[in-house]
Amino acid sequence: MKKFKEIFKNPIFVKLFFANFTSQMGSVIGITAFTFYLLDRFSNQPAYASVAEMMYSLPTLAVFFIVGVLADRMDRQKIAYHCDTLSAFLSIVLIGAIYIGWMPLIFAVLFLRSAISKFFFPAESGILQGVLSKDDYATSAGLNQMVSSLFMLFGSALGILAYRFTGVYGAIVIDSLSFIISGLLMRACKIPEEVRLPNGHHKWKDLNISFVFKDFKTGAFYILKNKLLRSLIIGFCIFGIVNGGFSVMPIFILKYKLAPQNYEEYSVILGVVFGTGVLIGSIISSLIIQKVKFYQAMIVGLIITGTFVVLSGYANNLMLFFVLIFISAITLPLVNIAIGGWMPSIVDKKYMGRVQGWVSPLMMLAQTLTLAFISISFQKFIQIETLYCIVGGGLLLVGIYYMIVLPRLLKKGITIVEDQPVVSN
Questions:
Q1: Rounded to 5 degrees, what angle do the CA atoms 162, 163, 169 make?
Q2: Contact assessment for residue 140 and residue 13, using Cβ atoms and an 8 Å cutoff
Q3: Which residue ranges traverse the bilayer (predicted)?
């Protein structure tokens, strides 16, 4: 609790924290409402819900080569601010596309808005790394995890309420307003120049194709030379599969197995159950993470969560399903907080954007392929139980991989220097 009070004395962190809060709130409401809109209007075509989720993940593959380069070479604060303002504008455009009712146009707007939003996180991560001390990284990750858990707890309920009382249009207006508030908070931050521009001033004319690809390649070599960082990022690919599955599996298991007649109402309860578990787990994990090593927390969290995700796919009644999901939710924050606190500690500030520029596309590629697989195969070749086995098995696989690899690498010792990471033998 003392560390939480101390970190909120940092005025830049406070603005960034609430910018992230408002942005997440609107996005959760908008995405949830739009998903239920698709399921209502196209109830016999569940593939539309999967395709919509793909439109949130697929754009990463279109912009991944430049996202990290911009975050390291251009003004990080301006990038984050313009991401918010453009996302707000495109949310309004989405309302017009839904009104017209042409699905290709709707998916195109979703794709474009998502592509722009991909520039936000590397820039924000770089700013946070620069304005916080190493001792605050885990605390910041814990707070962000608590915010995410609150939206897990209330997000579906807020999205459904917005959808029921204001319709899909009203929900997207809320989404747009949240981006505007986030952008204003981001603009109000007084961030030191060395944090905004860690590699000095660059102009747009400097960022020609040759420069961008050279810088992008430099980021790749930075990761490959750091064995610890490389091992962590290999695991992120599996996390992409997990994210892809979890984006649609909870609704699918309710609609097509456990509660076909009342899946909307029970999805709210599921959100409360899962969110409560993550919130409790976030508080517990924030305390545990101060007493154990990051890699130990990750391994335990992955193995326990993966086991209970697999078991939840075979639940034959709602009560058992909710209990199993609740247990898996309690241990999940151990993984997220450990990664969030560890990554900034092992990445040089000058390379943070390019490292994040590689992490996101690798995860999104796996997520997009997973959603494509679900769109093609669900109810045709595989059942819901198989999906839960794939996702839970992925978590178990990463946990076992980290159990084998990470302790051995850490025994060698890791030193991060200005130009490249060096692994000491």
A1: 95
A2: yes
A3: 12-39, 54-72, 142-162, 168-186, 232-254, 266-287, 294-314, 320-343, 355-376, 382-404
In angstroms, what CA-CA distances link 32 with 37, 52, 56, 102, 105?
Answer: 9, 11, 13, 20, 19
- Smallest CA-to-CA distance from 233 within 380, 341, 375, 339 is with 339
pTM for this structure? 0.69
Report the DSSP beta bridge partners of residue 416: 421
Helices (H) and strands (E) in the chain, counts: 17, 2
Is the separation of the CB atoms in 288 and 334 below 8 Å? yes
Going by C-alpha positions, the residue among 301, 339, 291 that lies closest to residue 140 is: 339
DSSP character for 258?
A: I
End-to-end CA separation in angstroms for the chain: 38
Q: Which domains does the chain carry?
A: 12-197+207-417 (1.20.1250.20)
Please state, as a whole number, how many other Cβ atoms lie within 10 Å of the Cβ of residue 129. 22
Asked if 390 and 245 count as a contact pair (C-beta separation under 8 A), the reply is yes
Relative orientation angle of helices 384-412 and 294-312, to the nearest 10 degrees:
170
323: tokens are 């209990």
Q: Report pLDDT digits (tens) over 133-142.
A: 777 777 777 7
Q: Which of 276, 286, 318, 313 is nearest to 395 (CA)?
A: 313
